[in-house]
Amino acid sequence: MNNQSGSSExxxxxxxxxxxxxxxxxxxxxxxxxxxxxGIIAYDLVGTQVMGxxxxxxxxxxxxxxxxxxxDHGCFISGEVGARFIAEATTNGILYSGRFLLPGEEVNLxxxxxxxxxxxxxxxxxxxxxxxxxxxxxIAFWEEMSHSTFDRLTDLPGRDTFTAWMINxxxxxxxDEDLIVGFMDVDDFKRINDVYGHLExxxxxxxVGECLKARMTEDTIACRWGGDEFVFAFASAGKRxxxxxxxxKDKITEATVGLNMRITVSIGYTRIKKSNHExxxxxxxxxxxxxxxxxxxxxxxVCEYGxxxxxxxx
Length: 314
Description:
Distance between the termini: 39 Å
Radius of gyration: 21 Å
Shape: globular
Order of helices and strands: HEEEEEEEEEEEHHEHHEEHEHE
Helix content: 25-40%
Low-confidence stretches: 1-26, 309-314
Largest sheet: 6 strands, antiparallel
Number of domains: 2
Number of strands: 16
Strand content: 25-35%
CATH class of the largest domain: Alpha Beta
Structural class: alpha+beta
């Protein structure tokens, strides 16, 4: 299965707190679970909802962040009882019960029915799985599965979601835009654990996570990469990128005012153009190298990949 992320408030809302994602659902409404890689995104099926790939001109109700999925892939129509799916004239089709649906074909969906969208990743055919759930037990099972795709400590999205978001967003960069990919870690994190204890160390990571979530929008994403390391990405034009990164760093330190510990972070970042041909893991590696450069210069520092001086002027 391929990877993706979502930003609609009907699914994983990257810019909202966890409690906002657990909004009261419509009574007896079926749910759709979109499974991509290790990421699972949940939607209520209510009324008529278009499914497809977001573009600069369209924002489908059920976004599928994959370059091989068409912008109008189909739509779900749901009422008080039951749900239907209508296929559109898509570029790569959708599988139901082992066959491709014809453009305009309509199917009635039952509890546990599965739709599959074939995509490609690294020249391999992959599948995005869509599971429809009506029964309480099936909904509860898949909701538990979807919750496990978030980092439990910080409530930030997982790596697969982050990586898929980056790849998709880079595809839609404008000529004057950069995709900023940043790597961040907490300065002297081992000392925080040693001096204040591991519970306070966890609290420090939660504070960083809350600050990153507060600055996320539909055009920005962040992820806990592992340990005290975090990554973020956003699209930006001109000098605004510098202000956003410095504000992100400063807000984290400000959040610890009045606490026993003072958190600072160091950040390395890289700029990606639409014309760049590196793989997503290479973007992360570039930002990581810039972070090592920042660490060599001291603490509470920001550095850009490929530039020898601290990134103060933007």
